[in-house]
Design a protein that fits this description.
With about 675 residues, the protein is of the alpha/beta class. It is built from 27 helices and 18 strands. Among the domains are: about 150 residues, no CATH class; about 200 residues, 3-Layer(aba) Sandwich (Rossmann fold).
C-alpha cells in the first residue's frame, strides 16, 4: 500500500495528533480515531492558517470540541472560543484543556471568562461598608466582604451556599454600567481587571455567547470591554447566536433598571462623598422625583399596553398615538429628572490634579453617565421610529419593561463579530435545514464560507426508535392535552420512567402533568420547582424519574446512560407568532416578498426539534425512544421536512414496537 503523503503545516501537525498511535491515543486510554473528527480538525486548521469562515455541522459523538481545540492550540495564535452554555464552557476549561495540556507537547495558557455580573466589585463593597444605606446592613455583606479578601477570582460561583437569585448580589456585582474604569481606587486589584489581563496573556480565551455579545455591544465604552482582541474565533453551539445577539443589541428601560440606578445614587449620597448638606438634599430630591415620575410612567405604559400591544417603527406611533399621549408627557418629566441628575452629578465630578490623579471619588462620573444613557434610551424607545427595531412592552411579575429589539441581527453579527477576526469557525450539531446551511447563513449575515457536514458517530438504527402516534387530535384543539397525557402515560410505562417530557409551553406542561401524575407513581420533577442544575442532579440520581420541562431543557443538557431512555416532545416547537420579535421577522420576510412559514418558521422549529431530540443519545452505549406526539409530522406536507431532519432512527406508530424495543437487553 503506497504511503499517504504527509500534510504540510498546521494541517499536518493536527493530523498527527488524531491518528492511531498519535498524541490523543497515547494520552486517552479509550480514544478511538474517528474519521469525522479528523476531517473537521483538518478543515479548522485550514481556517487558522488561511483565514475565512467555516460552517461545520458535526453530529453528536463526532468529538467536535477536540477537533477545534487541537488546531487552535497548535496554531500558536490567540483563539477565542465562544460557547452557547456555561456547561460547555466549563467542560472545555476544566476537562478538555487539562487533557490537551497533558497530551500535546506544546506549552499554552487558557483563560475562562464569564460575564462581568458574575464577579464581585471591591469598590462597591468598600462603599457599602463605609456607608449607612439599608444595603450596608444586609446580612450577606460581611459574608461576601470576608470572601472577597481571600478569593483569587472573585467569581460568585465559589460561594456555593449563596442563593442563585439573591437580590443583594446586584449591589456588589462588577457590572459595566457601574464601572468607573481607571479612576477606580481598586482598579489594579479589581477581579475584572485581572481577568482581562489574564485573557490578554492567554493563547485560548473561553467565553460564552452572552459575554461575547455583551462585550461587542459595549465595545465603544472603555469601561465595559473585557475580551481581548483575537485573530481567530470558534463559535460553538452557533445555532444559539441569533437569539443571544437579539437580546444584547436591543434597548430596554424597566422599573428594575430605574430603581437600581436610584439606589446607587442614594448609596453614593450615603457614602459621604457629597460634602455639603445642600448638595445631598438636591440629589436626594432628584432621586425622589425620578422615582415618582418613573412610577407614573410605568403605570401609564402598563395601562396603555395592557393587551401587550406591539407594532413596528412609525406604525406604532400612529397606531397608539392617542393612548401614548399622556405616557409621553409623563416620560418627559422622567427624562427631565434624569437631565437634572446628570447635570447635578456632573458638577460634583472630580477635577484632576497635574499628576492626573482624581481629587475626589469618581463614582459620580459613572452615575452621571448612566443618567444620560437611560434618558437617551428612553427617548429612543418612545420615538419608536427606527423600522429596524420592533418595540414592545413586556411584563415580568411586578416589573414592566419597555423594549426595542433588532428585527434582523445579520448585519450586526457580521460587523461586530465576524468581520473583526481573520478566521471564524461556526459549529454545532444542528446547523443545516433540508441538508443546507442557507438558513443559518442568512440569519447570521454569513456570505462566502467553507462548509462541511459530518454525520453522527452513533448508530441510530440500533440505538434508537422514533415513535409517532397513529392518531392524535389537532394540537390546537382542547382534546390534545388529554390525548397527549394518555400517550405519555403509555410511553412512561414502557420506559419505566427514565424520561424527559418536553413541552412548547407551560400551559401544556401543567395540563399533561396533572393527567400523568394521577396515573403513575414514578418520581416526577417539574421545571420551576428548583434551579435547573438541581433538577438535573436529582434526575440523574433518582431511579426511574421523569422530568417535565419547557424550552430551557431542550438544549445544553447531557444525561448519559440508562437514567434517560426516552424523550417525549408534545408539539412541533414553532415560535409563537404572538411573540413580538417573531411577529416582526415574519412581517419583514413577507414585506420583501418571501414566504415566512417556509423560510423562517419551519427551519427554526426544525433546529429546535433537533436539539430537543438530541438530548437522548449522548454515548455509543445509550439506547432509547424518541417520541413526537404532534400529528402534523405525518399529516402535513412540511412534516416530511421534520422527519428528514431528525435522527435517522426506525419510525414506528404502535406502542407494541416501543415495548419490544425496551425488552431487548
Amino acid at each position: 500500500m503506497p504511503e499517504v503523503p504527509a500534510l504540510p503545516g498546521l494541517a499536518g501537525l493536527t493530523a498527527q495528533v488524531f491518528r492511531a498511535g498519535g498524541a490523543l491515543s497515547q494520552a486517552l486510554p479509550d480514544y478511538e480515531p474517528r474519521a469525522g473528527q479528523a476531517e473537521m480538525a483538518a478543515r479548522v486548521a485550514d481556517v487558522f492558517e488561511n483565514g475565512g469562515v467555516l460552517l461545520a455541522e458535526a453530529g453528536t459523538g463526532t468529538g467536535k470540541t477536540l477537533a477545534y481545540l487541537v488546531p487552535a492550540i497548535l496554531s500558536r495564535q490567540r483563539v477565542l472560543i465562544s460557547t452557547g452554555t456555561k456547561n460547555l464552557q466549563e467542560q472545555i476549561y476544566f476537562k478538555d484543556i487539562p487533557t490537551l495540556r497533558a497530551a500535546l507537547d506544546v506549552p499554552f495558557t487558557a483563560t475562562y471568562m464569564k460575564g462581568r455580573a458574575n464577579y464581585v466589585c471591591l469598590h462597591r463593597i468598600d462603599l457599602l461598608s463605609e456607608g449607612n444605606s439599608p444595603q450596608s446592613h444586609d446580612v450577606f455583606l460581611p459574608i461576601i466582604r470576608d470572601w472577597s479578601k481571600t478569593t483569587d477570582t472573585g467569581d460568585r460561583a465559589e460561594l456555593e451556599d449563596l442563593p442563585e437569585d439573591l437580590p443583594f448580589w446586584s449591589e456588589v456585582a462588577a457590572t459595566a454600567e457601574a464601572c468607573i474604569g481607571n479612576d477606580c481606587p481598586r482598579y489594579s486589584e479589581c477581579f475584572v481587571t485581572r481577568m482581562r489581563q489574564r485573557a490578554a496573556e492567554s493563547d485560548v480565551v473561553i467565553v460564552n455567547h452572552h459575554l461575547l455579545c455583551a462585550d461587542a455591544a459595549v465595545r465603544q465604552n472603555a469601561f465595559g470591554e473585557v475580551i481581548p482582541a483575537c485573530a481567530y474565533a470558534v463559535v460553538d453551539e452557533a445555532h444559539q447566536l441569533e437569539d443571544v445577539a437579539t437580546q444584547y443589541f436591543g434597548f430596554s428601560i424597566s422599573t428594575y433598571r430605574i430603581e437600581d440606578y436610584a439606589r446607587d445614587v442614594e448609596r453614593f449620597i450615603a457614602s459621604g462623598s457629597v460634602t455639603t448638606r445642600s448638595a445631598q438634599m438636591e440629589l436626594q430630591q432628584g432621586v425622589d422625583r425620578l422615582r415618582d415620575h418613573a412610577r407614573s410612567f410605568f403605570t401609564e405604559v402598563a395601562f396603555a399596553h395592557r393587551s401587550n400591544d406591539r407594532v413596528r417603527g412609525e406604525e406604532r406611533v400612529r397606531a397608539t398615538d392617542q393612548s401614548l399621549a399622556h405616557t409621553r408627557e409623563v416620560a418627559a418629566y422622567m427624562a427631565g429628572s434624569l437631565d437634572l441628575l446628570e447635570g447635578g452629578l456632573a458638577l460634583l465630578a472630580p477635577s484632576r490634579s497635574p499628576d492626573d490623579e482624581p481629587s475626589a471619588p469618581s463614582d459620580v462620573v459613572a452615575l452621571s453617565r448612566r443618567a444620560g444613557e437611560i434618558r437617551d434610551e428612553l427617548r429612543f424607545l418612545l420615538r419608536a421610529g427606527d423600522p429596524a427595531y420592533v418595540y414592545f412592552v413586556e411584563f415580568r411579575g411586578k416589573s414592566v419593561f419597555l423594549r426595542a429589539s433588532p428585527i434582523d441581527v445579520s448585519e450586526i453579527v457580521r460587523d461586530l463579530l465576524l468581520d473583526r477576526v481573520r478566521g471564524t469557525v461556526l459549529t454545532s450539531a444542528t446547523l443545516t435545514v433540508d441538508g443546507a446551511f442557507d438558513y443559518v447563513k442568512g440569519r447570521l449575515g454569513i456570505g462566502q464560507a467553507e462548509e462541511v457536514r459530518l454525520a453522527s458517530e452513533f448508530d441510530y438504527e440500533s440505538q434508537a426508535l422514533l415513535y409517532l402516534p397513529p392518531r392524535m387530535p389537532d394540537p390546537r384543539s382542547p382534546e390534545f392535552a388529554l390525548a397527549a397525557g394518555h400517550q405519555v402515560i403509555e410511553l412512561l410505562k414502557r420506559s419505566q420512567g427514565r424520561a424527559f417530557v418536553l413541552f412548547t409551553s407551560y400551559a401544556s406542561l401543567r395540563s399533561v402533568q396533572a393527567i400523568v401524575e394521577m396515573a403513575l407513581e414514578y418520581p416526577m420533577l417539574v421545571q420551576g420547582t428548583a434551579p435547573r442544575s438541581q433538577l438535573l442532579k436529582q434526575f440523574r440520581e433518582t431511579p426511574n424519574s421523569v422530568l417535565f420541562a419547557t424550552s430551557s431543557f431542550w438544549q445544553g443538557v447531557d444525561v448519559v446512560g440508562e437514567a434517560l431512555s426516552c424523550v417525549i416532545v408534545d408539539k412541533l416547537p414553532f415560535a409563537s407568532p404572538s411573540d413580538p420579535v417573531t411577529s416582526a421577522r415574519i412581517e419583514a420576510i413577507r414585506a420583501r416578498g418571501g414566504e415566512p412559514f417556509d423560510e423562517y418558521q419551519v427551519p427554526l422549529a426544525i433546529l429546535t426539534l433537533q436539539q430537543g431530540l438530541g438530548r437522548l443519545i449522548r454515548h455509543r452505549r445509550d439506547r432509547g425512544v424518541l417520541a413526537v406526539l404532534d400529528p402534523r409530522m405525518r399529516t402535513k406536507g412540511y412534516g416530511r421536512r421534520f422527519i428528514a431532519s431528525v435522527p435517522p432512527a426506525p419510525v414506528v406508530h404502535n406502542l407494541d414496537a416501543v415495548e419490544r424495543f425496551f425488552s431487548i437487553v
